[in-house]
Amino acid sequence: MQDRPPQGLPPDRARPVGRRPARRPKWGRRIGAALAALLLLIVGFAVYVDTSLNRVDALPSDSTVSSEGTNWLIVGSDSRAELSDEQKKELATGSETSELTDTIMLLHTGSGAPTLVSLPRDSMVDIPGHGRNKINSAYGRGGGADGGGPELLIRTVEGATGLKIDHYAEIGFLGVVSVVDAVGGVELCVPEAIEDDKAALDIEAGCQTLDQATALGYVRTRATASSDFGRVERQRAFLAALLDKVTAPATLLNPFRIVPLASGLSSSITVDGNDHIWNLAALGLAMRGLPDGISTTVPVRDGVVNWDRDRALSLFEALGQDQRPPASALGP
């Protein structure tokens, strides 16, 4: 007797004896495997960047200072050590070999919006073991029990402000150049035109994209009527704009941006020995919140040398209690 096709099915659709139906591709498993591989790649890259960061023992292990919230000390070094002679000429940085902190900022984060405070580099403060001098000289002083470098600078800042420093980040001239280049320039609204041959800067007023050379000249120049006060204002505005660009989705999700950016950061930024890549990510996100926070300079009473004691005390006491500083305690 001949085999007949199952009832209800036409002869041409009869299932061949001994054959199973073809299985559909399991796209869910494939997509899951691809996402798992991508996650491993991202984690591996983050670990690589974290292990590549330059680290230094910056936070004093015997510090007895305490305060609420979290405080970053952000330092811009004037070191030209990693610049080539061609870069020094192109960027008009000069060839000085000093180790001074060209920029000093304190970022406070906590229960409210962040506060970014510029500490003018010529501020006269007490440097432990070295008497009263300009705050930016603490970094370059060495020897003795206080060692010099980042640790002595942090001891100096903690003594002058009463705030506990929890994290440290330092970036030099070459760091500014490499990071700006990696993100494809930084968008910034420039309030006034500035021409300064000493900083290789010729910039018009208005919103524009700063390339690496222009950005470096912009944060270095003093060729404005407001001099050092205007300089620290520009530095704060540039840093906020740079970190906003660094943490933007268009940067983080673009492999052609994030890979050179991560490499540039790991080679040009120095952090404390206990800091990691996720701490830097938290720093970037905090800087993105500055439009709702405060960006200011320590109030001074004569030029940029001596702080206004009462107003500065009010500023740092508020930050020490993780409170928003009163308007009367803010500088330029």
Based on CA inertia axes, which overall geometry fits?
Answer: globular
How many individual domains?
1
What's the multimeric state? single chain
Report the biggest beta sheet as strand number plus sense, adding barrel if it closes.
7 strands, mixed
Distance, first to last CA: 102 Å
Radius of gyration: 27 Å
Structural class: alpha+beta
Low-confidence stretches: none
Q: How are the strands of the largest sheet arranged?
A: 1-12-7-2-3-4-13
Average pLDDT number: 82
**What is the CATH homology-level superfamily?**
LCP protein
* Order of helix and strand elements from N to C terminus: HEEHEEEEHEHEEEEHHHHEHEEEH
Instruction: Indicate the CATH topology.
Output: Aminopeptidase
> Which CATH-level-2 architecture?
3-Layer(aba) Sandwich
Folded structure, characterized:
The protein has one domain: LCP protein (Aminopeptidase, 3-Layer(aba) Sandwich), CATH 3.40.630. It is built from 10 helices and 15 strands. The chain has helices spanning 27-52, 85-91, 149-161, 173-182, 212-220, 227-246, 249-252, 255-268, 277-288, 309-320, and strands spanning 54-56, 70-77, 101-109, 115-118, 124-127, 131-134, 167-171, 186-190, 194-196, 201-203, 206-210, 269-272, 294-297, 300-302, 306-307. A 7-stranded mixed sheet has the order 1-12-7-2-3-4-13. Strands 5-6 form a two-stranded antiparallel sheet. A hairpin with a 4-residue loop joins strand 9 (194-196) and strand 10 (201-203). Helix 4 (173-182) crosses helix 5 (212-220).
